Amino acid sequence: MSLRATLAPHASAVSEATPDKRGDCFDRGAHSATPSQRHKIIMKSFFKRYTPLQIAIHIYAWSALVRLIIDYFTGNLTANPIQALEQRTGRHAITLLVLSLACTPLNNIFGWRELIKRRRALGLYAFLYATLHMLIFVDLDYGLAWSLIVQTILEKPYIVVGVIAFLMLVPLAFTSFDIWKKRLGKNWKRLHQLVYLIAPLVVLHYAWGKKGDFFRLQGEIIRPLIYALIVILLLIMRIPQVRKALAALRDRILVLLRRREPVVE
Ligand code: HEM
Fold it and tell me: Which stretch of 110-114, 175-179, 186-190 has the lowest confidence by average pLDDT?
């Protein structure tokens, strides 16, 4: 008898169950199992429901937030904690945004289709951090003094760029759910193509805010430069001709690799 059948008469139903009913079947099956067997079943059912990539994305997004909160309350930020919070939330936002932008081109090259399913979570987490970043600026930094906020924004063009990028992110975040995809039809795709504009704007916001000299490679420009290069590369990879060429290259490499595989008699 298989281990699963020994553990619980209902355990076999776990694999056949629809995703939302898996937990149910597990509970019934686990009743008759010992604690260590139950632990094994829990882990198995957990990894059936969530993929490693999905888990990694959620862990990254939430652990960064938890670390920020802990560092804030334990006084573990820099001498200027509000600026540190602003910078860290900004960097998480841009990182998650770039990762969401990378999903489609990476799927085109490596054929890793799961990436397409993870775009939404990455984009929503980017929006979460961008919202925190904006709230820290208006509340913690400027104490909701609106006339001063408007004055500062108008005086510093890099903040204007950040505000424009944020305002463009809002409709994308709110319409990222399936119900809006259905409602908007073809316009959904058009709307979400805004991300091709948002990403360069955010990079510009980052680089401009750092006041470095790109041409002389002076100042804190290395990180913004890396983001800029990645965004440029990802945008180039979306050009139809480039996409086709990359797909053809991938197919050729796969053919070559298959030819090299030893034939097992
Ligand atoms: C309402 C919109 C926004 C406002 C008011 C705003 C404001 C600011 C300010 C004041 C800084 C400079 C912090 C400092 O060094 O003292 C900054 C930096 C930054 N912002 Fe924004 N921002 C906005 C939108 C965004 C968005 C949408 C993103 C990304 C998705 C973003 C990413 C960044 C990054 C990466 C930095 C640089 C962090 C660093 O210095 O390491 N910002 N932003």
Answer: 110-114
Atom of ligand 1 nearest to the CA of 166: 27
The DSSP 8-state label assigned to residue 137 in this structure reads I
Pocket lining: 205 vs ligand 1, CB cutoff 6 Å: yes
pLDDT of 12 = 38
In a domain, 264, yes or no: no
What domain range is 63 assigned to? 53-256
Q: Which band of pLDDT confidence, cut at 50, 70 and 90, is reported for residue 240?
A: very high
SS3 of 221, please? coil
**Whole-angstrom Cα distance, residue 175 to residue 185?**
11
Task: Give the whole-angstrom CA distance, residue 140 versus residue 196.
Answer: 31
CA of 175 to the centre of ligand 1 (A): 23
pLDDT at position 127 is 98
Q: Is 214 helix (H, G, I), strand (E, B) or coil?
A: coil
Give 169 Cα–ligand 1 centroid separation in angstroms.
14
Task: Give the residue from 91, 89, 109, 61 showing the smallest Cα distance to 233.
Answer: 109
Å from CA of 107 to ligand 1 middle: 29
44 with 57, same domain: the answer is no
Q: How many domains does the structure of the chain reveal?
A: 2
User: Are 63 and 29 part of one and the same domain?
Assistant: no
Q: Which structure tokens are listed for 259?
A: 């030819």
